[in-house]
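Course assignment 3, question 2. Fill in each field.
Student: A.L.
Task: Predict the tertiary structure for the chain below.
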Amino acid sequence: MSTDVRIFSQTASIVIYHECETAFCLHKPSGESFPVHQFYGDPVCALIGRNDDWCLIGGDVLVLLWVQDRTTKIIDGLKWIFDLRIVNDMTIQILTDPWGEAPAIWELAIRPDYPNEPAQPIKIKDFPGYKNKPFTESVMW
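Answer field:
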């Protein structure tokens, strides 16, 4: 890892970070790092599953990585991800750009039995509270 990186998420065995527009996964025990996805612009957020078996990385799109086999899938229907949060072991909420055209909170079920077919995101609610307001890194959602 170079010194010009931003770490998004880490556990005892995995680090998700980016250099420029590319997200990487570092396996701490082996020291091996591999590219996950090249985004349009920098990625902005990431979450690692509680068992270190998957991670989500958000930017212009949302990318699901299955860590063991390095399989990636772009989650259809979501653009300009701003933040992610865990609801439970296999359910994630996604906040799309609060200043964008259609800001919203979405929910996604991670499906380890069908790693190449993640569930489609479900819109929980619109999120218009930050529209036409100054940018801030900290959004209460």
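Instructor remarks: The first strand starts at residue 6 and ends at 10. The domain at 6-130 is CATH 2.130.10.10 (Methylamine Dehydrogenase; Chain H).
Grade: pending
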